[in-house]
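subagent[fold] <- orchestrator: predict structure for attached chain, return tokens only, no commentary.
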Amino acid sequence: MIIPQPEKIEVKKGSFQLNKKTVILVDEKSNPGIRGALREIGEYIANELRISTGLPLPVKNCNSDKNQISLKLISNEKLGEEGYELLSTTDGIKINAKTPAGIFYGCQTLRQLLPPENFSNRGAGASRNVRWEIPCVSISDKPRFKWRG
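subagent[fold] -> orchestrator:
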């Protein structure tokens, strides 16, 4: 269950598994004016996931076809300022948004898709038997109102 409930979610077959070779890709070419913000979000989510998974999850700006969590700014007016698209496949995860705020909210949804041990700060020692899998899904979400309640 994702809170708040996304505007659109489609569950697919399979899952993506985080492992020692998974990287977080920050597409710094997508909008050079705010690239520092995107890298900061990439480092933030990598840090949060490192604490619970014990995986290295380096943040890079090089592209590979598989085993990555990709954070990319796109020009999609339908998403608004805080909306995002999250696509999880067996090969990797893509989080696209118009602004860094949307990328941040997409990363929060990503965390909710992981096993509950993800919210533990006990580290890898307590999480060795956890399969760090994210179900294959397609999610599109944006705030329903201009203000947060």
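orchestrator: received. Logging for downstream: The chain is about 20% helix and 30% strand. The beta strands are 8-17, 23-26, 59-60, 68-73, 84-88, 92-97, 133-141.
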